[in-house]
Amino acid sequence: MADKSLIGRRMSQGAVDVEKGRLRFFAKAIGETDPLYIDEAAARGAGHPDLPVPPTFLMCLNTEVGDLVESLKVLQVDLGRILHAEQAFDYHRMAYAGDRLHFETTVADVYDKKGGALHFVVQKTRVTNQRDEHVADLSSTLVERRG
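^ that's the sequence the OP posted. Answer follows.
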């Protein structure tokens, strides 16, 4: 089981190129019909330099820089007993097709509830672009059921 000694530990770090085709595919997959996310002319007409990254797409990109199996080993949690408890985003600037986004994830907190029956691990991810500009902070909480 994860313990407080893991707080501050880097879990993953890496960069991903944002591709137009993937943005369009993601927009289609989530049912996004706003042309801003699929049509370059519409995006530029709205004042964007290229297709903007839809908000939750950052979490998808973040999964590409980490190794889930290795993370679960480090956190010492049982895949069959965990749930995705919470996800949050704090945006600082837009990201666009053509950007190279850098992700660095660390353990932010480890705690129990219900007398230890629920064990929580909070991970925070800082996202920057190729100009080292702060794009967003992502937060993801896992809960492991015990007992």
